[in-house]
Structure formats: C-alpha cells, structure tokens
C-alpha cells in the first residue's frame, strides 16, 4: 500500500518592517552628502600634487630664507630677516630690479603694438584668404621655436661676424663689427629685442580671435552714424578688445618678469650686470655663490612681487566675469 505524503509546508516569512520617516531622511542626507563630496573626490589627486609640487617647496624656501648656512651646515642657525636685509642692501639687486622693469615694460608694450598691428592686418577684408594664411604661418613662426633655439639663433645673428652686422654695415648704418650682446650699452636692448621677436605672436593670436568675435553690426551702426576708420577703431574696436588686452598684458607682464632661460643662454646676466634680472640674480646666488639662504630670501621677494601681479590678474578676471 503506497504511503501518501502531504505537501511540504511553506516556511513562514518574517514580516518586513516598514521604512519609517527617519530612514528616509537619513537616506536623503547620505545622498546629498555624496553629491557634495563627489567634486572634491575628483579634485583630490590634483590637490595632492599641488601640495607636493608647490606648497611644500614654497614652505621650504621660506624656511631656508630665515636660516643661515642652509645646505652647507648640518645645523643651520635661525637668523630671522638678516638674509632679506642682505638682499635689499645689495646694489646688484636694485640693478636687477631696474633691468627687470625696463625689460618687462618694453616687451609688454611692444608686444601689444606689434600684435595688434598684425592682428588688424590679418583681420582686414582687403587681403585674400591665401595671403592671410601665408602671413599667419610667417608671423607665428617665432612662437614655435623653443627658447634654446631662439637664443642660439640670435647669438649667431648678432655675433660680430653675423648677418645683422653685415646688413647694417652694407647699408652704412654701423661701422665695424658691433658686439651687440657683449657691449654693456647694447646688451639689454638686444635681449629685449629678442624677447619681443619671440613673444609677439601670443598677443597677435589672442587679439585676432578677439577681433573676429566683434559683431559686424557695431561697425555698420558706426558707419551709419558717420564714423570713419579711426573713430570705429577708437570707439568700437578698442572697447571690445579691452578685457582681452588687460588680461594679456597682465599675463605677459607676469611671464616676462620671470624670464630666465633666454637671458641666461644669451648673455648670462652680463656683461658687468648689464642684463642682470631678478631671475638670474637669484640663480647666481644659489649656484655661483652657493649661498642658498640669501638666494631663498631673494626668491621669496620675487614670489611676493608675482603674487601682487597675480592678485590684480585674478581681480580683473572676476570683474570681467
């Protein structure tokens, strides 16, 4: 006789407790916190790199500037601001400041003039597209060369037996073989000219982009009002380009004050400190005199000057936005 088996009973499931209002509020808080922390999670790697590569070296340099005999002594002594006093009483430092200002102001002003002139020409409807393309390639070439190539190229051109002296002598403008980079009276002007030649494309490209973004309706309205070419340039072009001009001028000023490679590879700060600037002055303190404490003090002073310029740049950008 077969045994009849009853179907197995289903196990009773424990009732799921209903989610209360506290659990929903907690989930919403966790979700909001995740959304707020997500951007910081993406920025964390960059922040770590900035701390390692920027904040830490700055703190070390500031610390070195307050000590005596850094690197050379095992136990450097704390001397406060004596290194700063030594830098500020050094006559070469003030000569470097003067040369830096002359070099920077001249470069920025001429960069703007040449860049604006070439940008206006390349934006003119009088030139064909092929001619504009050819001129753009020619005018942007100086910006494509590295600093090393620019320095070597112009050292050859400005040498006593170089092309520049040959052309000037052939036209009767100079006599003999001029030492452009070795003469104290011409070295700073020669280095400034080289920096102008290699840096004007930065202004040219930026201003050309600004010119192409000016609405044509403004010029048409100005012509309807009877404005000529100069009036259009003065009352339409310059006001529209003013934000770009100020931004580019501040950036160029900051970069030019920190120019080192070009001067070091052409004149080395000489002859007789004729082209000594703040960057070469600080470099020589550290790696010629091996006085890293005084060099750190000079570097901190340069950093403070750069921070002032950066403050004005950031302030302008905020007001522009």
Radius of gyration computed on alpha carbons: 32 Å
User: How many distinct domains?
Assistant: 2
H/E series, N to C? HEEHHHHHHHHHHH
- Give me the side-by-side strand order of the main sheet: 1-2
How many individual helices? 12
Give the integer mean of the pLDDT values: 86
CATH T-level topology of the largest domain: MetI-like fold
The rough form would be described as flat
- Distance separating the two termini: 95 Å
What can you tell me about this protein's structure?
With 321 residues, the protein is mainly alpha-helical. It has two domains: 33-78, no CATH class; 83-320, MetI-like (MetI-like fold, Orthogonal Bundle), CATH 1.10.3720. It has twelve helices and two strands, in the order αββααααααααααα. A two-stranded antiparallel sheet has the order 1-2.
Features:
two-stranded antiparallel ribbon; 2 strands; 1% strand; 2 domains; MetI-like fold; 321 residues; mainly alpha
Short description:
The protein has twelve helices and two strands.
Write the layout of secondary structure elements.
Layout: H1 21-65, E1 67-68, E2 77-78, H2 82-88, H3 91-122, H4 129-144, H5 147-157, H6 163-170, H7 187-212, H8 216-224, H9 229-257, H10 261-266, H11 278-287, H12 292-320
Antiparallel strand pairs: 1-2
Helix pairs in contact: 1-12, 2-12, 3-7, 3-9, 4-7, 7-9, 9-12, 11-12
Domain ABC transmembrane type-1: 97-313
Membrane topology: Multi-pass membrane protein
Main location: membrane
